[in-house]
């Protein structure tokens, strides 16, 4: 089976985050119980957001027995100088969400201050600039 899907995002307060989706970039393929989904999303707002950045509404619910710790990869150009960052995607069991794991290499925040490096396990809204893309691809098992 092949099709398209529409990623959505909510902040820590449950408020919808305004996204733009690159035309033709959000598609999936399902063969048996294995799903491969790809997307290019863009933050399309300037409001202040808090907490972990989470993409929701995957085309199928993930397998209930366990989380899929390394289900894919992501990257983005944060536009803070030449600051490109990426890592692996984590998909919790029995859900339709993706979390973007911060890379193990330390990277600076928006201000470029070396003393203020990211200590968060997952990518947060404060680390994603308005009008910047996140590119990702995941492969996961569904029930």
Describe what this molecule looks like in 3D.
- With 143 residues, the chain is mainly β.
- The protein is built from no helices and ten strands.
- The protein has strands at residues 2-4, 8-9, 19-21, 27-31, 34-43, 54-56, 68-77, 84-91, 98-100, 133-141.
- Strands 1, 2, 3, 4, 5, 6, 7, 8, 9 and 10 form a ten-stranded antiparallel beta sheet that branches.
- A hairpin with a 2-residue loop joins strand 4 (27-31) and strand 5.
- The radius of gyration is 15 Å and the shape is globular.
- The two termini are 15 Å apart.
- Residues 113-117 have low confidence and may be disordered.
How is this fold's topology laid out?
Elements (H helix, E strand, L loop, with lengths): L1 E3 L3 E2 L9 E3 L5 E5 L2 E10 L10 E3 L11 E10 L6 E8 L6 E3 L32 E9 L2
């Amino acid at each position: 089976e092949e099709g398209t899907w529409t990623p959505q995002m909510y902040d820590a307060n449950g408020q919808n985050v305004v996204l733009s989706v690159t035309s033709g970039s959000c598609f999936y393929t399902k063969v048996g119980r294995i799903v491969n989904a790809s997307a290019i999303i863009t933050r399309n707002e300037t409001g202040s957001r808090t907490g972990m950045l989470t993409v929701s509404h995957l085309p199928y619910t993930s397998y209930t027995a366990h989380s899929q710790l390394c289900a894919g990869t992501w990257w983005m150009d944060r536009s803070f100088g030449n600051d490109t960052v990426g890592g692996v995607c984590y998909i919790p069991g029995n859900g339709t969400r993706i979390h973007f794991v911060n890379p193990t290499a330390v990277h600076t925040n928006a201000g470029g201050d070396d003393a203020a490096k990211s200590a968060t396990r997952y990518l947060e809204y404060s680390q994603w600039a308005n009008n910047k893309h996140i590119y990702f691809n995941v492969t996961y098992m569904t029930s």
